[in-house]
Amino acid sequence: MLNLIIYGAPGSGKGTQSDLIIKKYNLNHFSTGDILRKEIADNTELGQYANSFISKGQLVPDDVVIGMIANKIDSLDKDKNNGIIFDGFPRTVNQAVALEEMLKVRNLKTDLLIELIVEEEELINRLLLRGQISGRSDDNLETIKARLDVYENQTKPVTAYYEKLDKYKGVQGTGSIEEIFERITQVIEQTI
Ligand code: B4P
Residue 189 domain-assigned? Predict the structure, then answer.
């Protein structure tokens, strides 16, 4: 069983690297961003509510995303669960505390948080490029800047929380997708 958190600023490559990690280690992939975008695409009540935050670059309220993740964990077949990758969650210290508690009461735990470290200029370039094809309401310059501010002020403290638990590892998130994946694999192999 391997439970990982993939963490980093918007555009740091969490989704890109998660796709490779889940294939190699046969993990379940829980991406709060993907779940919320599906709700938006389906035009559900939750999707409309979430989009009112996402389109401004703000975080969706903690209780909403925490509930979503708890439901996903409870939907797993315990006998077939090799582990989970949490992608884009937790994004606040409140979410981190809730995650650790919800795992503990289910006799589970996180093994590692891996941060993808990428400088701001590169993040902005990647997201602007993605915006040209994604049609995402949050991939425009104004919203990208708001997301980076939110990351700095609300999400960054999550690293100190996992450093205290001795579960934090940082990985350089620039270079080719394969090079970054190799760095991540090395960190995972040191842990398992
Ligand atoms: P997310 O879906 O988590 O998305 P993200 O941070 O924008 O992207 P990610 O880091 O996954 O980057 P990607 O691999 O796509 O969140 C979206 C929004 O949902 C949040 O802003 C928030 O409002 C809401 N939300 C989600 N979770 C939440 C939570 N827990 N609490 C509250 N709100 C929440 O890569 C980005 C681009 O870079 C891609 O185009 C990719 O092709 C490119 N790229 C990747 N690796 C590269 C490399 N090595 N070199 C060059 N380009 C690369």
Answer: no
